[in-house]
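Slide 14.
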Amino acid sequence: MFSISPMKDLYESPMPPMALTDYEAMSKFLNRGAQRCKASGRNFDLFLDWVIHALTQSLTADSASRIFLPKTKTCPFELDDLIPLSPLRSQRRQRVQLRETNLIAPVWNNSDLESALEAFYDSGFAGTDLEEVFGGVYIQELRLAIIDAPADVDVPQVLRVWSRGSILLNSWSLGELEPVLSTDGEHWYLQGEDGEQKLPVLETRMAALYNCGLRRYAGRE
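Slide 15: predicted structure.
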């Protein structure tokens, strides 16, 4: 008998986890798209928009379904494990309408999610404009909200599923982030008062999404 490696099982499953996204494979797709657009005269934004949409939808879907992973193999989510923005201080807060927002708010605690679902049901599925400032960030051009405080994720996640309510988040534009944060797909490079920090990329999709966003909206090549 022969055995199949667990990684091979993942790649050949009917729906391989998108966390297996390969940065080089994404780059190859975009490079081919750029060549085709150069030859045809089409706008390359066509390819960037598709990749941004695919990566955003994958990340947001996975953040909701994270509750189904074994708790012994996971832990509460931290923003900097996805994208290292917590050392930066935004000067702007923005009210984010959840029905118009891509939301990464990885749920992890069964009891908290159950309580949030029950409260939403008991309210008659009413929307709520929440007044507290949530931990995390909002990236304007991507319409992407990321919430990382463990106690905060469940209510916004439930409201977003039913397209209700709004929240307050510290807000950044990609143009503001571009001078201080970059990635090559393997590492993040964060410019601070003490010089450059080099941090590992733990989620390839986020690195790819960030660079595609810079190319699309901040004019970065």
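Speaker note: Helices lie at 6-12, 23-40, 45-65, 79-82, 110-122, 154-161, 174-177, 204-217.
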